[in-house]
């Protein structure tokens, strides 16, 4: 072979691994997932098509029945999912040493990284609502498939071209029967986002994910957790003290719309029976209103304006929506003035 021909050097070839139709860059590590490391991959025939591949050592699931069952569950869940707000599985490949899961690649990192990149360490109310709405859209699809996630947190919410995608179904589970009916299930969670039922190790339902998503929503809005403690037992006691004894209060800064705060309160009810249901959340005014505004903005940008009755109708509808917002904000201001003397209970 003529060595003068343009060829990849030995070092670059060493870090590239061909698995089926995919080329994995073993030097381009994207992160750590449940029981595996995630790398960048491209199609061998088209390097513009990018994927995230979770590489799992065969030893991990061969040496432990628990690990095998966890991996089996994740694959079962992922194989069934197809939604624009969910990180989807494209292909599975196996060698003698590794199992490879080829997934959607997300170029924006995770939500936690995005929040921390902000100077204020939080997001605006409008952006928080938009991301939360996209999460709820994803969960509505999960709900229809009778799947619960059980580990909703910013690190499992990926961003791609500004769109949010729910990821990491290592703790995901199919549910038989009613999604909101408490059942005896294994406990899977990240404590700071876990519902009281998960912390207490009692029966729970898909409403455990409502609690977790409320904590994520709160984190986006305020840049902090709604409940903190030195350990899991203190965390549970802190939750019981604030929620059950109704001493939970929102920070005064930044000022957040009253209807958004009321939604979070409904999601953070201690008992699942009192917590807002998924059906109610799917059609909640906070999310419906945001969706309508997005539609109006989209039509506005793509509609010829001069003398166009449709454009005039769009403007009238938007003015009505904004007028309703003004009424809400005025009432919120009154509420804020009344509560300025209250202290934020830590």
UniProtKB/TrEMBL annotation:
Domain of life from the UniProt record: Eukaryota
Name of the top EC class for this enzyme: transferase
Keyword Cytoplasm among record annotations: no
Gene Ontology molecular function terms on file: ATP binding; calcium/calmodulin-dependent protein kinase activity
Domain Protein kinase: 24-287
Binding positions for ATP per the UniProt entry: 54
SUBUNIT field: Monomer.
Record protein name field: Protein kinase domain protein
Record key words, sorted: ATP-binding, Kinase, Nucleotide-binding, Serine/threonine-protein kinase, Transferase
GO biological process, one term: autophagosome assembly
Record family assignment: Belongs to the protein kinase superfamily.
InterPro entries: Atg1-like (IPR045269), Kinase-like_dom_sf (IPR011009), Prot_kinase_dom (IPR000719), Protein_kinase_ATP_BS (IPR017441), Ser/Thr_kinase_AS (IPR008271)
EC numbers on record: 2.7.11.17
GO cellular component, one term: cytosol
